[in-house]
Design a protein that fits this description.
Layout: H1 2-9, E1 14-18, H2 24-30, E2 39-44, H3 48-55, H4 59-65, H5 70-84, E3 88-94, E4 109-116, E5 122-127, H6 132-150
Parallel strand pairs: 1-2, 1-3
Antiparallel strand pairs: 3-4, 4-5
């Protein structure tokens, strides 16, 4: 996998903080034999309390912006980086559906953030389409692409 090779080439380790993808990114990365040399942690922070307890997302931030927001995705990425000691993180929070969407936060809305030590945290907002599985798989693909982008700060 290109991402794992990129992590190795840059002397980086990686971790994940996943909400709507529920660990799919970590599962994909750990499906590859030998990934343990660059993948250190996978946080599944599906509940807001898990976002706070496991990776230090402030409850007030979630209350102010909502769990599906740029602010929370960035806090998840930076919190996972701090908690794990990894060199690069990816965070995903979104609404996979079929329920849970609103007029301003519809089903398919996904926020991604990737933090790297010594570099700016990057954020992306996506509006994916399809059913729950399709939204989650599109989020995984976008997250892996953002991680690769973060390899070149």
């Amino acid at each position: 996998m290109h991402l794992l090779d990129g992590l190795r080439a840059n002397g980086l380790t990686a971790c994940t903080a996943e909400s709507c993808t529920g660990g799919l990114i970590a599962a994909l990365l750990t499906d590859i034999p030998g990934s343990s040399d660059v993948f250190t942690h996978g946080y599944v922070t599906y509940a807001n309390t898990a976002k706070t307890a496991m990776i230090g997302v402030p409850p007030a931030l979630i209350q102010t912006h909502g769990a599906v927001s740029e602010a929370v995705a960035v806090a998840m990425a930076e919190g996972a980086l701090a908690a794990s000691g990894a060199g690069l993180s990816i965070a995903v929070t979104g609404i996979a559906g079929p329920g849970g969407g609103t007029a301003d936060k519809p089903v398919g809305l996904v926020h991604l953030a990737s933090a790297r030590r010594g570099a700016a945290t990057r954020h992306q907002q996506h509006h994916f389409t399809g059913d729950r599985t399709q939204v989650r798989l599109q989020a995984v693909a976008a997250a892996l692409a953002l991680m690769e982008l973060q390899l070149t700060p």
